[in-house]
């Protein structure tokens, strides 16, 4: 159950204020309640979660236990760095109505974000990588759904930068503890 719930919660929280969520919120504000935008987000969240979980499992299977733990620490550190990085995006001036273009933009925004690094880490750390992929996909979609529902209110009502910095700090601490533990220094 932890292999499902932890990635679900972590992906949702780490996605708050992310480029993908802000893209969906801004497009939903300009396009109105477009269910196609939500469907594209669900498809992309599923694809990126499956891709990162597969990558995490594949790489982890090649490594001994201590190296696998270091891999997880590096993935969490990468997620922390992405969370610390400020999100600066221009508002779309002429939003496209092409679901293919929107899905492609969301895919490239998600594939290297902190939430997907966390899915990679969870898949590498557990033997139940498919559950990590499912939890990560649902968590990512839930974050996009929140952006779609709140639209422009998302950035006005939530302290997204503060949330991202706090989560980045927590992930950095977790990465350091895991790395020290893998090196038998803790």
Q: What does the model show?
A:
- The structure is a single chain.
- The chain has 186 residues and is mainly alpha-helical.
- The protein has one domain.
- It is built from nine helices and no strands.
- It has helices spanning 2-15, 19-31, 35-61, 65-84, 99-110, 114-125, 129-150, 153-157, 160-182.
- The radius of gyration is 16 Å and the shape is globular.
- The mean pLDDT is 90.
Largest sheet: none
SSE string, helix = H, strand = E? HHHHHHHHH
**Helix content class:** over 70%
- Measured distance between first and last alpha carbons: 27 Å
Structural class of the helices, strands and pairings? mainly alpha
Structure summarized in a few sentences:
The chain is mainly α and 186 residues long.
Characteristic terms for this protein:
186 residues; mainly alpha; 9 helices; 80% helix; GDT1 family protein; membrane; transmembrane helix; transmembrane
């Amino acid at each position: 159950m932890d292999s499902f719930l932890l990635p679900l919660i972590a992906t949702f929280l780490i996605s708050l204020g992310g480029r993908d969520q802000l893209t969906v919120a801004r497009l939903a504000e300009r396009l109105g309640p477009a269910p196609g935008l939500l469907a594209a987000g669900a498809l992309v969240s599923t694809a990126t979660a499956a891709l990162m979980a597969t990558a995490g499992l594949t790489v982890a299977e090649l490594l001994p236990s201590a190296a696998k733990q270091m891999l997880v620490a590096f993935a969490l550190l990468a997620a922390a760095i992405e969370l610390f990085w400020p999100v600066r995006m221009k508002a779309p001036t002429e939003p496209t109505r092409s679901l293919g273009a929107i899905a492609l933009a969301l895919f490239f925004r998600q594939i290297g974000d902190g939430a997907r690094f966390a899915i990679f880490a969870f898949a590498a750390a557990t033997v139940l990588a498919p559950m990590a992929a499912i939890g990560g996909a649902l968590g990512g979609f839930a974050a996009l759904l929140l952006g779609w529902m709140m639209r422009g209110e998302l950035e006005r009502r939530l302290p997204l930068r503060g949330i991202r910095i706090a989560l980045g700090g927590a992930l950095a601490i977790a990465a350091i503890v895991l790395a020290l533990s893998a090196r038998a220094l803790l």
